[in-house]
């Protein structure tokens, strides 16, 4: 039988979100109903509300979530009722050209639920990143569920569902940070600080945090930065070069996603170094640079999608490292809030006062 639950909905561009009654249909053959235990408030949810992703309103927001599998479709084999899962938006298909060439983290045809959740009047909802987890329950494809250690704190490990995984993966997967490498991270919000934590986990020797906010630089130190650069006081490129023997960092990660920060990342790397763009630019942003600089500096210029993660491979490993005390994921949870506090959390997030607010149900 369809179920009625509470959910946070963005009805129109820029309008405050509202707590609405939503209808969860019975799961299709490969679908799963998950009882949500916790869901982080991510910038992507705010982008949806502001119309920055697409205009397919109304949206059911929320996607950084963990919970318990409650109901499964008749063809589901990946999870069982009662499993504790972290939700992900890269449910790989196994059949596209990326999957077939052994790079499923680039899957071009990821799965979502076969049916739509709706408002009471039947209006179809667009779930954020195919998940929609600012709700008591949500409907997803079985491949969007990754089983992890059930003793883990849902408010902490649910953050692997998006921003924290994006940052960790930008360092560990896309940037391929190795032991003894020098790493600079520009932008020390949730994603940037996760990149710092990932660089530390990978064994980087020098980890430089760059931001214009002194509070964020303090957070970065707590997550593994060995040096900090206040870009409001000094030239970030010169400071990074000075801290790396005049050469520049082996890997520079742009967690902001603006033309000016990408240029800083480009010129702050060593010859043949790597630039990783994980911050999300807007469609109107453009970049103009001398082509000779690309040729003469060599190296790699990469974009990181979801930290180039493979949830089935990465989530359980990272949860285990957290449980062992080797990855301080709990430091990303700044506050725990109720479902009807999401709009206020957007304001707090925009002011840079939190790494993550987490809705706990």
TrEMBL record:
Domain spans labelled Enoyl reductase (ER): 14-359
Signal peptide region: none
EC number: 1.1.1.306
Cofactor entry: Zn(2+)
UniProt keyword list: Metal-binding, Oxidoreductase, Zinc
Database matches in InterPro entries: ADH-like_C, ADH-like_N, ADH_Zn_CS, ER, GroES-like_sf, MycoS_dep_FDH, NAD(P)-bd_dom_sf
GO molecular function, one term: mycothiol-dependent formaldehyde dehydrogenase activity
SUPFAM superfamilies for this protein: GroES-like, NAD(P)-binding Rossmann-fold domains
Domain of life: Bacteria
Name of the protein: S-(Hydroxymethyl)mycothiol dehydrogenase
